[in-house]
Amino acid sequence: MPHQHRWHHPLCLAPRPLRPWLTESGSLTARLIAHYPCFKVRVLAQGLARPHDDERATLGLPRANVRVPSREVLLCSGDTPLVFAHSVTTPAAVRRGFRKFRHIGGRSLGSMLFASPTIARSMLAWRRVDARHPLWRKARAVVGPLPARLWARRSVFYTGPDRLLVTEVFLPPLFQESR
């Protein structure tokens, strides 16, 4: 699978408190709610955007200048950002299998993805991201100063021929606490 090639740093390099979060196979949202009762979703952007190069490859998009449905949110505990989440899909997918993606608003994407028995998920892949990665730079623009490296994970959700790529960048409050 194209998304896993550069997305498989050894998990043993991740901070120990973060490893269970990186490998959570169920809904990250459900796990966050269980640990952070003041959980909320802060929508940063939702609309058409240019996917990153590796996202284009994963979604099988042919052109570099294509714009696709995209969503960026912060998953927070109260006002404290815990995760910067970035999702992209194809225009056809929001007309078919991922119709709800357009109108999800302030709800978590996980509430949609894990509620449907017709949606399957790929294996998780993870890596460290730094200032060279566009998602690290986007997270920094939103939350302010960040460590030089953060950990992120991603997976592809499938329903029929449609794909939705979800990437989650874990922010310092999450892996500095023991939960």
UniProtKB/TrEMBL annotation:
One of its GO terms (molecular function) is chorismate lyase activity. GO terms for cellular component: cytosol. Transmembrane segments: none annotated. It catalyses: chorismate = 4-hydroxybenzoate + pyruvate. InterPro entries: Chorismate--pyruvate_lyase, Chorismate_lyase_/UTRA_dom_sf. Pathway: Cofactor biosynthesis; ubiquinone biosynthesis. Its EC number is 4.1.3.40. Substrate binds at R71, L109, E168. It is found in: Cytoplasm. One of its GO terms (biological process) is ubiquinone biosynthetic process. Belongs to the UbiC family. Removes the pyruvyl group from chorismate, with concomitant aromatization of the ring, to provide 4-hydroxybenzoate (4HB) for the ubiquinone pathway. HAMAP family: UbiC. This is Probable chorismate pyruvate-lyase. The lineage of its organism: Bacteria, Pseudomonadati, Pseudomonadota, Betaproteobacteria, Neisseriales.
